[in-house]
Amino acid sequence: MNQMTHALADPLSMFDVEGKVALITGASGAFGMVAARVLAGAGCKLVLSAGNAEALGEIAEEVRALGATVTTINARPDTEEACTNMVAQTVAAHGALDILVVASGMNKVAKIDEMAVETFTSVMDANVTQSWMLAKAATSQMKAQGSGGKIVLVSSARGLLGHPAGYTAYCASKAAVDGITKALGCELGPTGITVNAIAPTVFRSPLTAWMFEDTEQAQTVRNGFLTRVPKGRLGEPEDLAGPLLFLASKASDFYTGHILYADGGYTAG
Helix, strand or coil for residue 78? Predict the structure, then answer.
């Protein structure tokens, strides 16, 4: 039975990532925690990185309870050396790097005439430069292994659409992440390394929890937003689980340079 026939006869095998080694940056953030839980539950060996030591320890203990092998790195990917060291520590701990999930990043909101240049550049550095540096470090390792790999970046619906509430830095940064994703998809296509991005709209997290509350302000904001969401609701963490597993597994081997919108149809209309 050839590989194609086997995949069609046993389609769930295409999503099997058991034993794969995954490095997740920003593991204590909303998307990073989703990634850690999903890939731990799917049997990956995890290396979790974050700057917040306490929150990093909490998510590490949670996924260890799921049976995952976990290594932690209390650091942010804010220099090329830090990114290279994260990849090196991953290989030292587990012998390889198969999956990179870049969930680190930030947003700072201000109208353009009130935003300092330093604020703009800090968002660009966190969302764009760090994604690029991590992809660079991972690419070198994955090429050396010779068995391909999966790089998953985190974009946003705001990479495609603007926003009136002081989002110039964030929108620009996520549009740049989309550009990196597409360019690397083209560049690395022949190597067997795929590069894709998940682009959520608003989903439940500690930062957005207020939007889900039963208050007048939350209802006003939520109802205004939902007029643009065909599915009629905001996102939940589990809405990101399936797309992530798809992009981290063999099921997405023919997909690269792709921006996968997890947005309930928000960007469709």
Answer: coil
* Least confidently predicted of 61-75, 131-145, 227-241: 227-241
Instruction: Enumerate domains of the chain plus CATH numbers.
Output: 3-200+238-261 (3.40.50.720), 207-234 (no CATH)
* Active-site residue, selected from the candidate residues 170, 255, 261, 266: 170
pLDDT tens, residue by residue, 189-239: 999 999 999 999 988 887 788 888 889 988 898 888 888 899 999 888 899
Q: Is 170 a catalytic residue?
A: yes
Secondary structure (DSSP) of 218-254: HHHHHHHHHTT-TT-S-B-THHHHHHHHHHHSGGGTT
Q: What are phi and psi of 193, to 5 degrees?
A: -95, 125
The helix or strand, by DSSP H or E, that contains position 180, with its residue range, turns out to be: helix 168-188
Q: Give the distance from CA 26 to its chain's centroid.
A: 9
What pairing do the DSSP bridges indicate for beta strands 259-262 and 45-50? unpaired
Beta-bridge partner residues of 149: 193
Residue 100, strand partner residues: 23, 151
Residue with tokens 């701990």: 93
Tokens of 262: 């997890």
Q: How many CB atoms lie within 10 A of CB 190?
A: 7
